[in-house]
């Protein structure tokens, strides 16, 4: 596996590099956004560890451009654990985030978790449908009205999980564990991803029909028959 680390702090970059390499991951470092984008095009990484606060082009803009060019998974590094920073990173399409100061071991575990979920595996062909929404699980492609949906890795996994389990209400903590593989973490992650997914698959995100809110519980895939 190849990971691109984009961070302007050489100390942080070196620590992250050493811990990832100990885990058997090939690492490329970039000190700023422009260099990171150029490296991403050159090496085609399996995942990008991206600092939110970068000189010049910030991490949000870098993430937007990475998303424009493909669906490479992104783990965002945010400072001070501010909720606004986390939500901003997730809204941009980050698949996960780690707040500074962070444990290098925790970062490695988060990176490995995302890589496991995005690595090609032998999967039996499966297609999930509801009206004009068609999801090719093995091909990791979703289409609505014949048009491909620009879903992030986490958004796609969340959509598949809900479509496979129609009619059941899930708590955010359950979704966090089932989709993200976390037994603990900030549950606002789920809220942000549900909102982003609704904006892409619902005809009216303000009045969702497919992903319904069950007050006091969480969310469910509305159509009982999938």
Automatic annotation (TrEMBL):
Cited Pfam families: Response_reg, Trans_reg_C
Location of 4-aspartylphosphate modifications: 51
Residue ranges of domain Response regulatory in the record: 2-115
InterPro entries on file: CheY-like_superfamily, OmpR/PhoB-type_DNA-bd, Sig_transdc_resp-reg_receiver, WalR-like, WH-like_DNA-bd_sf
GO BP term, pick one: regulation of DNA-templated transcription
GO cellular component assignments: cytosol; protein-DNA complex
Keywords: DNA-binding, Phosphoprotein, Transcription, Transcription regulation, Two-component regulatory system
Protein name: DNA-binding response OmpR family regulator
Organism: Longispora fulva
């Amino acid at each position: 596996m190849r990971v691109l680390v984009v961070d302007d702090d050489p100390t942080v970059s070196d620590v992250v590099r050493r811990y990832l390499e100990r885990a058997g991951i090939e690492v490329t470092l970039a000190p700023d956004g422009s260099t990171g984008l150029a490296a991403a095009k050159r090496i085609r990484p399996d995942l990008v560890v991206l600092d939110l606060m970068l000189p010049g082009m910030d991490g949000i803009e870098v993430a937007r451009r990475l998303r424009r060019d493909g669906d490479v998974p992104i783990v965002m590094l945010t400072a001070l654990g501010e909720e606004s920073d986390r939500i901003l990173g997730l809204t941009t399409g980050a698949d996960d985030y780690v707040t500074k100061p962070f444990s290098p071991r925790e970062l490695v575990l988060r990176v490995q978790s995302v890589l496991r979920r995005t690595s090609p595996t032998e999967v039996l062909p499966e297609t999930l449908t509801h009206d004009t929404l068609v999801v090719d699980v093995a091909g990791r492609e979703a289409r609505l009205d014949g048009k491909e949906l620009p879903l992030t890795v986490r958004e796609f996994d969340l959509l598949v999980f809900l479509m496979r389990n129609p009619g059941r209400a899930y708590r955010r903590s359950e979704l966090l564990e089932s989709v993200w593989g976390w037994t603990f973490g900030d549950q606002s992650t789920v809220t942000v991803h549900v909102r982003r997914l609704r904006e892409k698959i619902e005809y009216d995100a303000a009045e969702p029909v497919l992903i319904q809110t069950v007050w006091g519980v969480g969310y469910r895939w509305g159509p009982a028959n999938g």
